[in-house]
Amino acid sequence: MPGELKPKNIFLLAGQSNMAGRGGVYNDTKTNFLKWDGKVPPQCTPTPNILALSLNKTWEIAREPLHKEIDNLKTCGVGPGMPFSNQILAKCPNFGVIGLVPCAIGGTKIERWQKGTNLYNQLVDRARAARQSSGGNIRALLWYQGESDCDEQDSRLYKGRLEKFFNNVRQDLESPELPILMIVVSTGEGKFLRSVRDAQLNINLKNVVRVDSMGSTYLPGHLHLDTKSAVRIGQKLADNFLHNFYIICN
């Protein structure tokens, strides 16, 4: 890829289905299979200034569904990654080329993201490959997960597991103060959503910024964000990143 298209600013996208994107996914009643409606909102428009690391670790122009290759056992749709990137470039035109590193996998508990697991290893491996191949800097981890931890036992252990995960990622990427933008979940597979939310809201680590998804609109089943809310969350992530970690747009 031409040097000018190598990303200066790398963002890691990890978590479960709402980070992978389910906006526009519907059940085709003729086949009873889930399909994506193919509708790409303006906020998700592809541009040469937004790249994505493919499954085989090459940089390509990012486009929806961003996680199609990574979360490949599920039907992916619109997620927060593209609106996040477009919002940053709209507010800071001189920000530089953005490189997204999709790593989210639907239906995954925090336990499956602990150090030594396949998901953790893939995240760290792809992050390192992105940094090495581009010469850019990892600006932040965008994290949207917790819906699958809303049973009694997992919700009780969630805070400790999440803090451990964040600390390990920072250590293994040699970035002890890596900014983390965490979406606070608003839906869950279980009765203990409030416990998971409380855990996320009470994480006490430096440079962890929360974006609450409460008030979002969802697909049928009330678990996955619809396209409108995926865009809104992505834009909120961008605004919070710029406000907290990139104050001057020149």
TrEMBL record:
Residues 8-242 form the Sialate O-acetylesterase domain. The keyword Hydrolase applies. Keywords: Hydrolase. The keyword Hydrolase applies. InterPro entries: Carb_Esterase_6, SASA, SGNH_hydro_sf. Pfam families: SASA (PF03629). PANTHER family: ESTERASE, PUTATIVE (DUF303)-RELATED. This is Sialate O-acetylesterase domain-containing protein. GO terms for molecular function: hydrolase activity.
